[in-house]
Design brief:
mainly beta; two-stranded antiparallel ribbon
Length: 451
């Protein structure tokens, strides 16, 4: 894997040099292409609310350098009919908490929960600079107030910090941005924060990403990534060190067809290697660990624009999806002859669909989201510690209709969400048996002001 990593870096350097040489024979891209290179995932409404870029004569007067500042204020009120498994003071929901009976048979988790939050308000700066190596260059810096953990809620958090170089047929991205499995071209348009976890991945990572555009309607992307806020689990809790200690980055490949048409289809495959421990002890002697665990994931997604509205959907299947805020992880499957632990993955699958329409002259957007995720248990019998999420859950599903009102920079957003989690008892392979459903309704109202 280390040789693979070295080879990938060498290929990227060759591509940069070759692309710079090729660009001398290519006409300068238009300002419109430059704007496109700064695009972030957003709802259809927020695209219309984005402030204007500084370009044209202003950018020319600055020698090709321009800066655009923007963001939004987001305030929300949330009520849940029962306790939930969630993050950031209950704001980011995963699924309902299990039924927990007291001495009188009353469900301790059956009480409601009310909260208000403003932490998703954010600010960003987008920059364009003069051409470099024949490429159009843009940058993005974005922060919010979510914090990197529950005890840091309200503190500044880095979301994106990246530099992008764009040629006629290729792109290079360096820095922190959406993880490649989060398809910015087709993702759930839900009001609730969290990107529709645990049915859809949510992660932003430091990365190097190369994209090649064989035609104007398709794109192939290769990338290597590390971890920061969205971490894998292990003996010392969730941490980026298990990926770092393996000595190799996560690798991803994505292919898109229909990037300029009404129907888009895409596929992403990824692979990562973790090293859960650096040493192990036998008696009073300490030995160096060599055992690692590899895991893969596959994401298929689509988007279709029709006369009645826009459909989006996807299917995900993978191992150890914990760092994407989905069900899964890994566990100890045994020990080798020398006493070192071996590991096995938990496998998870999910499906989701989203539909949005504007039947009232774009003043009102109606939408509905549905998601389902299944825990397929461990690939091998578990013989020791488990580092995973939702191991006592067989499946979870969600249905969430929404209404968004507004035509300018201010919008009201209302979403009603029904969540159900089937809790049970896992066997030795962590297939969950004898399930009992825990369900809740979430009512969310958000007011947003884009600037």
């Amino acid at each position: 894997m280390k040789r693979l990593f070295t080879t990938i870096i060498s290929i990227l350097l060759i591509i940069i040099t070759a692309q710079a040489q090729l660009s001398t024979n290519v006409a300068t891209a238009s300002t419109g292409v430059l704007k496109q290179s700064l695009k972030q995932p957003t709802t259809d409404q927020e695209k219309k609310e984005s402030p204007k870029t500084t370009d044209g004569e202003d950018a020319e007067a600055l020698g090709g350098f321009s800066v655009k500042a923007g963001g939004f204020i987001w305030t929300e009120t949330i009520y849940d009919t029962r306790q939930t498994v969630s993050a950031r003071d209950g704001d980011v929901i995963l699924y309902p908490a299990p039924i927990k009976l007291d001495a009188n048979g009353a469900d301790i988790n059956g009480s409601g929960d009310f909260t208000m939050a403003n932490i998703h308000s954010r600010a960003k700066i987008m920059v364009t600079t003069p051409d470099f190596l024949g490429a159009k260059v843009s940058g993005l810096l974005e922060v919010d107030f979510v914090g990197t953990s529950n005890d840091q809620i309200g503190l500044l958090r880095l979301r994106h910090a990246m530099v992008k170089m764009k040629w006629q047929k290729a792109e290079l991205l360096f820095g922190q941005y959406w993880y490649p499995m989060f398809a910015t071209e087709a993702f759930p348009q839900v009001v609730s924060w969290g990107g529709a976890i645990p049915f859809h991945p949510l992660s932003r990572n430091a990365q190097i990403r190369y994209s090649y555009l064989p035609t104007e309607n398709s794109k192939l992307t290769l990338s290597i990534c590390t971890q920061l806020d969205f971490k894998s689990p292990g003996p010392d809790g969730a941490s980026a060190k298990y990926l770092q200690d393996s000595g190799v980055p996560e690798v991803n490949a994505t292919y898109l067809i229909g990037t300029k048409g009404k129907v888009l289809v895409g596929a992403n495959v990824g692979y990562k290697v973790l090293k859960p421990a650096q040493s192990f002890t036998v008696g009073e002697q300490v030995f160096k660990c060599t055992e690692t665990i590899g895991s893969y994931q596959i994401n298929l997604f689509t988007k279709a624009k029709t006369s009645v509205g826009t459909f989006r959907g996807g299917a995900i299947y993978g191992q150890n999806l914990y760092n994407f805020l989905m069900l899964g992880g890994y566990g100890v499957s045994g020990t080798k002859d020398n006493g070192e632990a071996t590991y096995t993955n938990f496998t998870t699958g999910s499906h989701w669909v989203d539909f949005a329409t504007n039947p009232f002259a774009n003043k009102i957007t109606l939408g509905i989201y549905g998601g389902y995720t299944q825990n397929y248990g461990a690939d091998e019998t578990i013989m020791g510690a488990v580092y995973a999420r939702g191991t006592n859950i067989d499946h979870v599903y969600r249905i969430a209709p929404r209404v968004i009102y507004g035509t300018g920079r201010v919008r009201f957003r209302l979403e009603t969400m029904y969540n159900l989690a089937a809790y049970g008892t896992p066997d030795e392979n962590y297939d969950v048996q004898n399930t009992e459903n825990a369900a809740n309704w979430r009512f969310l109202f958000a007011t947003t002001l884009t600037f």
